[in-house]
Amino acid sequence: MESYSKRKRECPSSPESTQPSSFPDEVLERVLALLTSHKDRSSVSLVCKDWYNAERWSRTRVFIGNCYSVSPEILARRFPNIRCVILKGKPRFSDFNLVPHNWGADIHAWLVAFANNYPFLEELRLKRMAVNDESLEFLALNFPNFKVLSLLSCDGFSTDGLAAITTHCKNLTELDIHENGVEDRSGNWLSCFPESFTSLEVLNYANLSSEVNFDALERLVSRCKSLKVLKVNKSISLEQLQRLLVRAPQLVELGTGTFVQELTPRQCAELESAFNNCKNIHTLSGLWEATVLHLPALYPACSNLTFLNLSYAALQSGELAKLLAHCPRLQRLWVLDTVEDKGLEAVGSNCPLLEELRVFPADPFDEEIIHGVTEAGFLAVSFGCRRLHYVLYFCRQMTNAAVATIVQNCPDFTHFRLCIMNPGQPDYLTNEPMDEAFGAVVRTCTKLQRLSVSGLLTDLTFEYIGNYAKNLEVLSVAFAGSSDWGMQCVLGGCSKLRKLEIRDCPFGNLALLSGLEKYESMRSLWMSACKLTMSGCRRLAREMPRLNVEVMKEDGSDDGHADKVYVYRTVAGPRRDAPPSVLTL
Amino acid sequence: MSPENLNQSPDSDVGSLNFEETRLTLGLPGVECRGCKSGVKRGFSETVDLNLGSSSSGCGGGDDDKRSSGENDVLDSAKPPAAKAQVVGWPPVRASRKNAMKSCKYVKVAVDGAPYLRKVDLEMYNTYQQLLSALEDMFSCFTIRNYLNERKIMDQVNGVEYVPTYEDKDGDWMLIGDVPWKMFVESCKRLRLMKSSEAIGLAPRTPSKNSSTS
């Protein structure tokens, strides 16, 4: 067993308390160890000094939503027994190229601190961090118990770094490389798993492009009897997929490779038979280039499917309808808008248990093409899927009336992310702003936690949000609003707001400064291409020393203008690793 | 995709549709003819990429260049949002998703007289009949009429007949159905449903041309 750092007994009772704590510390620690929710643990730590200490000794998993809000040293001082770290780095808009490439969020300093303080670290889950090959090698060599590596939206590393992980991490159970900016040099990393290595439970390399050695993959899958999640990349053919499935019928999550190939009838039958034997699959993804020809092979495996990710398969409405007829238990569905409204009607008809729908645009940048989904598709889903509570919907037209009906049908939305792709587009039938749509959303959906707005919006939208969205935690705004008043309403009304990200809106210093008191209760604020100036930002930085106010300057912009501003609370003080283009005020 | 290497009729007026100059050579469906470009003109080819209010000019293959909007210049934020220029990071689609669609064989479909384009993925189909059925579904007022073995599409509402044509890799406009399906998928850049009345001068191909089958 790994050794715990033993807690030295401090004074038996804290000076503040008038009587000794009623529980022995060991009992308290045992009880607190059962708490898993980060929020609960935070609450516990605030009760009293004894509980704070018991909690910090018993905590093994830590979640840090902004890597600059705390330093590795502070973390290590407070929590001596961490096994799992979840770290998030860059602001979310970095996914859309709005953050300078060298902005920061480098994992290396953290790894060095972990090597010193948490040599028995087992699990690292990173999102939007800068990770290079040297760091991956350091990780592979310094943590003998390392089990889980999950990299989501990270960048800066290559497949050589992955090779270091697969070569050295003898106890690895999970390798999840998802949607990263990876320099894909070769598929060699997979062959670096030693032949004696059998502990893998999760392997996701779906977004890499290089071909791996298939024999090595097949042998790996054969000998890892606990493998539950396998998501391969496009270079795996149908024939190869069949061979993998035969070796791993116990899979619970499957990401296929390319789903089109000339197959003989015998091969088709074998494929279908392989799927038939996989009765435990509840998540299915991949399916690149899936067509009507081979989709039926999947049907036998769909009876227990709860999550179907078709966002890389450009299906038409008919194909989707036929597939969904076999997926009665579906709870989460991701599709491309090639399925069109007719496809979404099929969703409404076939998936009564649906809770989450994401519709991605197949052709987001081609303005000549008018297809995809409209308000009609969304309406159809809302009539058929009353349990819907999470939606991400990219469309080219919407109406206020449709949204009002949709939320009437599905009042339990927790996440409502609507993207009308043409910035500032009004209700296409009435030509009015989309204010009433979002008004209906916030009035009706009292549980709303996350909202993304779009279309032509005036300050009225933000008045509605401030007045009604009392549980709102995350708000994304683009090309909207009329004046500072809009942002002021949100800052003044949304008491639970944690993250606010704004781009291309007419909000200026007055709005920014109206939130002075609020930003310490939030994780972060992002404002780009708004009307902020350097003097406004400086004033914020001056008045609120426990906030970091960072300004990213664009080349050739007006000196007084603050092009991109990122504000976040921190106990670590101003960061020292910012590149020259990022000013911390 | 450049038109310079073709024998354009010197009279063809790039700025307007000049159908008198158009001569499509036809083969009867089923006749295989590899690379038979001679006689096929594209006098209207540059103008076919219609004035739909878009900023792109003529080249369907230019789509891919537009996808990496991250590399474009930042849109001046003072511009009104209705401007159709490329905006950095908008729509908010991750880079990994932008790349997802590239390998599909999507081609634009234009219909004479329709105000918008559609797109079809040729990889979805195995025969011309399947493709034409899909086009029928897409432009739902049409039905397919197999009339004397010619593939024509009929708009039931206004009785107009359309002839399905496509632009190939070399920029020539061909009648759909001339070449084997796979070759068609390989070489097709875009589709156009042309009004029969405007596709005048259509004539069956004479056997004196190179008619080697593939």
TrEMBL record, chain A:
Annotated stretches, region: Disordered: 1-23
Superkingdom assignment: Eukaryota
Residue ranges of domain F-box in the record: 23-64
Keywords: Auxin signaling pathway, Developmental protein, Nucleus, Ubl conjugation pathway
Molecular function terms from GO: auxin binding
UniProt pathway annotation: Protein modification; protein ubiquitination
GO process annotations (BP): auxin-activated signaling pathway; pollen maturation; SCF-dependent proteasomal ubiquitin-dependent protein catabolic process
GO CC annotation terms, alphabetical: nucleus; SCF ubiquitin ligase complex
Coiled coil: none
Record-linked CDD domains: F-box_AtTIR1-like (cd22159)
A Pfam family reported for this protein in Swiss-Prot or TrEMBL: F-box_5
Protein name: F-box domain-containing protein
Source species of the chain: Dipteronia sinensis
UniProtKB/TrEMBL annotation, chain B:
Main subcellular location: nucleus
Region of interest: Disordered: 48-88
Keyword Repressor annotated: yes
Keywords: Auxin signaling pathway, Nucleus, Repressor, Transcription, Transcription regulation
Gene3D superfamilies reported for this sequence: Phosphatidylinositol 3-kinase Catalytic Subunit, Chain A, domain 1 (3.10.20.90)
One GO BP: auxin-activated signaling pathway
Tagged with keyword Aminoacyl-tRNA synthetase: no
One Pfam family named in its UniProt record: AUX_IAA
Domain of life assignment: Eukaryota
Signal peptide (from-to): none
A single GO cellular-component term on record: nucleus
Localization of this protein: Nucleus
Record-linked SUPFAM superfamilies: CAD & PB1 domains
Domain PB1 residue range list: 104-196
Function per UniProt: Aux/IAA proteins are short-lived transcriptional factors that function as repressors of early auxin response genes at low auxin concentrations.
Subunit-structure text: Homodimers and heterodimers.
Assigned protein family: Belongs to the Aux/IAA family.
PANTHER family the UniProt entry points to: AUXIN-RESPONSIVE PROTEIN IAA15 (PTHR31734:SF34), AUXIN-RESPONSIVE PROTEIN IAA17 (PTHR31734)
Protein name: Auxin-responsive protein
Species in which this protein is naturally found: Dipteronia sinensis
Organism phylogeny: Eukaryota, Viridiplantae, Streptophyta, Embryophyta, Tracheophyta
